[in-house]
Fold each of these.
Amino acid sequence: MTPTLTLDAIQAYRTETYRLRQPIRSRAEAVAFVAARGYVYFWPIKEAPLPSLWAAVAGERPVADAHDDPGHVTWGWKDGSLGKRVWYYAKVLRKRATLISLDVVPYFYALSENYGEPDKDYLLQYDAGRLTFEAKTIYETLLAEGPLDTVSLRKLAHMTSKASDSPFNRALEALQADFKILPVGIAEAGAWKYAFIYECVHRHYPDLPERARPIRQADARRKLAELYLRSVGAARERDFVALFGWPKRDADAALQALAQAGVARLGVAVAEQPGEWAALAELG
């Protein structure tokens, strides 16, 4: 008989893991929340079920436009924590703002295209067509110059024209998603007097490559998939593929490993929902 869950049961589970019942009230609680979940989004992403710092503070409601909304205290916590190494912050999952526990970052890094020589690895990606010219230029600029705010980075990378806006921003996102650069501070620069300061990951976290080195990629996927399930309770295979950007075969392998370990059940039906789901074993 196919095991069956209900959306109500899944939502009840998420109410606890998303901190919707006991809102976060301080930065220390926010850091503990990220550590407990392993990784969360900064803002909620409608098409990607995952805890977010905003919802854990403000509840399950849209992000407010009003700057004085109490939920926007998260913005100050995020900016005030840049460079403090209390968590890892960058555009990672689906190239959206992501907060990652420092204990979990090595598992992400183990899946990136960084193989131990940060000043050379990127050239292999570029030669293979997996890194754009703009991303290569930005990364080389940071390698040569050290931390730079966005305005200065654009100038030194010779990408100040209006036509460079989209390529520059896409390159920043790609470099963050591959754990090559990350924001480490805020500068009063540009028209808005607010610009991220970017630095190379291997310089800001010099021990990260060594911490990631012994982690096998299959083990990294299993770890991240388990953390995802422990946050959301149940998800479809396509949710894993969409969130992490893994090939289907790798997502399958990670889920099979969790099932063999007794952590997850596969082939679960969710009432009135299409497809087969993977669910935590304890959800029944």
Amino acid sequence: MSEMNGEARIKMLREAPIPALLLKMGVPTMIGMLVTGFYNLIDAYFVGGLGTSQMGAVSVAFPLGQALVGIAVMFGGGAASYLSRLLGEGRGKEAGRVASTALYSSLIFGTIVIIGIECRLDHVLLGLGATETILPYARQYAVVYVASSVFNIFNVTMNNIASSEGAVKVSMAAMLLGAALNTFFAPVFIYGLRMGILGAALATAAAQAVTAVMYLAYILNRKSVFSFSPKEFTFERTVFREIFKVGIPIFVFQLAASAAISMTNMAAKPYGDSAIAAMGIVTRVISMGIYAVFGFAKGFQPVAGYNYGAKRYDRLRNATKVAVEWTTCFCVLFVLLMAAFPASVISLFTANDGSVVRFGSWALRVNVITFLFYGMEAIYSMLSLALGESLGGWVLSAGRQALFFIPAILTLPRAAGLNGVIFAQPAADVITGFVMGIIALRLNENLKVLEKNTASRRAADGKKPAG
């Protein structure tokens, strides 16, 4: 798949009509993120045929992958916001140093964390909610799943950096190929070669390795506006400050998502393997909607960052309005589909376990309702981060699965038992929705003021006599 050169991508961010630009930027990144979610669904679909304990093992290991991806998003996502603004300001050389520093930092830090997890794997899995019957399967799966996450750290970091320069087709092609290979490898390894749950982890590892090779080819063939030379790696405080200003809130969101899943597993643990498996299925299904919206929001981020850096506030406000409308429409359709056919959806991921289907159907219907708010939350979170306003982005990113979810999951199960486990996330979503409304109003007012001031200055400059 051919990709436009760097200069053409920058011109597209500056001049293309907003609806067409959002489609061109948002759809490929949305597909890329959906592919990430598809990896998790493929594992759940094929492992579900092995038994409830095996499905529970995948659910227990899932937060580890989320946390490790958080490292990649911290450096890659944090750099993406800064890179878009630097490119918008015409500071290409500085952008190159930022891109290289983000990539190598994520790989170094990610490798250290992976080694630490592998050394204490059993303790980690038990802390994530593994029961005595789930632990053997979780260990077998996670030992490969965690080690191979180094490929995913590289892939997600590159996905963010490539998106910041408008190279969304590269990311889409790499992620689609990886998903196709995982879909092929999983049944072959799990059932054809009779590897069981280990085969699921090996299939994912092989697919992610191929995706990494495609990104390496993108770098080595000099398709990017960045060189990614090790010589460009820098310890400059300014670079890391700008990366972490946006990256740490996103990292907190990823860690919060990981903690939310593990805390849900722990809350469901007293009710048996079926409850853990069911909540794991619900999490994966709703994650597909989250990945779709978040992926589109990632495509919106470079549009927002570039036009903010270029002081094109009119384009920025228009892009925000269109992005909110489109993501909200998607959320409505997703909610209607999941709420209408919950049993059919849950049944795809279990080997005829009626208790998993009954519990999972009720949990899916309850949890999907508050997804209606997620489109606005994702866009305004990305807008805050693209503008370098980390506080608003942090509150929206961390609020749904940390600030508001953790108190809910700690208190509601004690008061309402198993229903408390189910209603914890919806309760957090409602509170996050109110906070999002406040932040959205403030951001919109700020952009109106900036747009008005810029128009006034341009009018005044136009009245000055020449010479």
Amino acid sequence: MADSVTLRNGSGVEIGVAGNPVVVTGGGGGTQYADGDAVPSPTTGTVALGTDGTNLQAVKTDSDGNLQADILTIAAGDNNIGNVDVVSSALPTGASTSAKQDTIIGHLDGVEGLLTTIDGDTGTIAGAVSGTEMQVDVVASLPAGTNNIGDVDILSIAAGDNNIGNVDIASAIPAGTNNIGQVSVAPQTSNGLSVFNATSSDGATALTNSAQAIKASAGQLYGWYIYNPNSSAQFVQLYNTAAASVTVGTTNPLFMLTIPATSAANVEFTNGITFSNAGWSCAATSTAGGNGAPSTALDAVFFFK
């Protein structure tokens, strides 16, 4: 005989029509499932339900049976999910739940990558500092000018040693106008200045109104000593022209010196005066623009290179 069920109300009175009880008969026994069994079709068994505010919805789990929870919104002013700081609270406006989740995961991945980089850099710096010296690589040439790398005091450099601290000078400093700080010029036994002697001694010709060659090629004038024995001022002309091409009183000098009566003039320059032509010369006259000879020739010595 099939099983039957009698329905009663809350007071225990049988429910039926005109006093007749309602009897439910038939039905089979339920199926028991174990954890991990596949969902049958059609679905039978016990299902947990939730509500979306309008309809009942089945509560879902992931593949391991864990309850799946979607974070739909984050309250304004609260950027914390547990102990994790979200770098930006701005989530895509109107985006789907999965897009918002991707945004949060992207922020977390960025923070993790930054922390990894910082950790690696910290280890590198710590290793360099813990050693006896730190190596600094200059990846590009320093720009021209007065650029300093820190404040470096050079106490002394041993002869034959091109090292300043632990910095190797790979090659010699190229010739030219390269300066290393302020360098004092030390006396040398070679490569000094040359001398042109226009005096009345040692068979030389004292300076008068005939041009005399100082140098037969381009060079620089670094100084002079000139004595005027006459009772009036005399004028010394310096020409950027070879002596053979000079016409005193007509050829324009590069510059002129006025030597007072019975006086001497002397000077030495650290930086020379350039004479660019292939030959340059000098002469002395009794007037500034004329070609008259001094009553007594002048004694002059010029220092050049």
Amino acid sequence: MNNQRSPHNFRSKSFLIDQVQSIVDFYYPECIDNTLGGYINQFRDDGTIFDDRTKHLVGTCRFVYVFATAATMLNNPEYLEAARHGVKFLGEHHKQSTGGYAWLLDGIDVDDSTNHCYGHAFVLLAYATALKAGIAEAAEPLSETFDLMERYFWRKNDELYVDEITPDFLSVDPYRGQNANMHTCEAMIAAFEATGEQRYIQRATTLAKRVCVDLAGQSDGMVWEHFDEDWSIDWEYNLDDPKNLFRPYGYLVGHWTEWTKLLLILEEHNPQDWMLPQAKRLFDAAVEQGWDHENGGFNYSISPSLGAGRASALGRGDAASGGVIDTDRYYWVLSETIAAAGLLAKRTGKQVYSDWYERTWEWSLANLVDQQYGGWYRILDADNNRYDDLKSPASKTDYHPVAACWELFKRL
């Protein structure tokens, strides 16, 4: 690690506040759609808008999260109203007559009403975060969303949620994935923090154990992404589409550190003896296998033969070589690793995690945080260069760094 002392005190509340303020200043107030309602999601690096029509469910929910969190963290009532603005749009336009929430809108017209568990997890997170911030009208839809997910997505025998259901809720896609369950776990923790209701923290604990212990038992303790209908690992899913936006192929080291963060938060609410060891195991593997020691930053995905002891070669490209599949650097991977390292440092007192906390902040500030306009660049190549000037397409909103700063702010 670089021995030169950083000018930043990454553990100070003022530093974390400044980071969140910079993000909010980039989006607000231009992101507030006063014509159609909800938010405008699509921004270029300089803050200009390149699409004022597309409204993604995840983007709407993440903006609610960002503004509700900023209202609390920065003590600004304007941001609370910005969050309330999004809560209203969720209920009036994303929510359909079936009770489900449309995945994609063109203005206020439904473009895709497929029911995604991933999307509904963010609905639950948005309502929970809004309620925590003081938006009382989020309480009823929070409970309703849990009940809806219980009715349609939850599988009692599997103790996991299915991923995708048709708009009429009649046909379930056979794909099973950990990502939707991970974000549902995150949302359940937030719902518990908002309400104190035990059903939420118990469900979060069940999901965490099923993914990080039971399912990970099929892949040498590491979290794999894609599964068949019976929750056996599908090693070939999206092998030909390794950069799929929502379901990329390979082990995602960012999800290992994201689970680290969630396990440590979960341990505070409902401690169990497996949580800290698995959190450390996932984090240690992520930084060992994912960090680029030459250029810095994390490679996005790694092959099964590297991430776990799978002996059989897959027979094509980098995936069979036991190496890195995707060398791109995504902003959210650094955000989650910053949070995980900070929480691990506090939980264990070990210097190695403090070092990673410092290293990941320093690299992010130098490469991902836009020092001119604010916000984080979405994606860089292996040489840490941007592909384009699209800072926030569709659903980004910089929710990940805001969430990292907030969880650290509460604890450091």
